[in-house]
Amino acid sequence: MTEARSVSEAELHAYADGFLDEADRARVQSFLAENPEAAQMVSDWQDQNEELRAAFAGHERSKLSDIRLLSGGLARAGTRPSRRLALAAAAVLIFAAGALGGHYGPLLFEPADIRLTYAEILPREARTAFLVYASEVRHPVEVFANEETHLATWLGKRLSIANLKVPNLQGQGFKLVGGRLLPVGGKPGALFMYEDQGGQRLTVLVGRNKENRTTSFRFASANSVETFYWIDGELGYAVTGEISRDMLRRIAEECYRQFPS
Amino acid sequence: MSQNPDQSPSGTAREAQAPAPISFEAQILALLPTLRRYSRSLTRSDTESEDLLQDCVEKALLSRAQWRGSNFKSWAYRIMTNLHLNARRSIARRPSVGIEEAETVAAGTSADDPLEKNRLVQALETLPKEARAVLILVVVEGYAYQEVADMLDIPVGTVMSRLSRARQALREKMREENVIPLRRPR
Prior knowledge:
Low-confidence stretches of chain B: 1-20, 89-117, 179-186
Strand content of chain B: under 5%
Structural class of chain B: mainly alpha
Radius of gyration of chain A: 24 Å
Number of strands of chain B: 0
Number of helices of chain B: 10
Number of helices of chain A: 8
Distance between the termini of chain B: 67 Å
Mean pLDDT of chain A: 80
Oligomer: heterodimer
Mean pLDDT of chain B: 75
Helix content of chain A: 40-55%
Order of helices and strands of chain A: HHHHHHEHEEEEEEH
Number of strands of chain A: 7
């Protein structure tokens, strides 16, 4: 019945590209079963598809020079962005980098290698800290939000960050719970905790590593815990929570904006 | 409706009510990673790819008034494709990234760049630009045939014939090359 209808080349392409609905797919399949040459051809196309996607996947990435690419373009195009726009753009860049980093994220939580780079340590420790502390009911932090100034001075001193400011995430619906000192990569680090009205918590981790020379933005997720982290010179930052990537993006944008660069 | 709400002076008041509409510049930035992938898949080297990306960003900024608020990604892809297809090979390319910028490039893996080894990608270099663009748009970028036709202003039949030509050519090339392993080892 249906097999009797011939199959066009366009349909073979659509089959290889996954554009056919179920009925058409079945029809093409039974055609291919009877036409080994065509079946070989379509199978070769599908191999090509996979190989091409794999070959270029690694090129989907952000570069820190992207902002310059844009501002250079703006200068040549004769338009001037306001600083606010540039900042917003910078923040969005983080998300862009993060979203694509998601492909590789799970790898970061694979069993430990012998020597880990700071970029690998940071998201692991951020995730662990979140899992350990965010579930604490009575003692989630060492210093509560009512002593915010003290918290900032204290942790700023331990991390050697002059004028460390605790990010304000009220605009995103998250109130500061407080913070604590904790080891990050074997050095003093800071953890700030926030929660929204529903009690949903997220953590912001800051660490320092003098040897660090690389700079990167990444997104990592394991189970339902999402971490977005970036390394900026000697300082590493990670935002972690069981929240949507969209929300995490907004939080990361905000933190990036507020932390000293 | 779609004209750049971020330019308005009432920005701050609007920001209080989440989430703010995203600015034109921010949309470009957010799109840069995928644009970079597309750019690299159309060109022969990282340098050519970054040049094309830079030209595309500049052109998009210049033509911002022409963006009608429809799909931004398709609009940007169209610009890049046209720039690439219309480019003369003889145009002298400017150096793309200064040495000081190279240090700040995100942790990448140029050493084990899959493109270095990939035979299929080498075969890609032998395709006509137009056929290659169609193949990449469909396979790597995931556009439907009709979307590609709309983006390039060509009939869908032309999309199909270019796709078909690209696939056949790659297949032949790969088959040809499968003979090569029979060469005597050095």
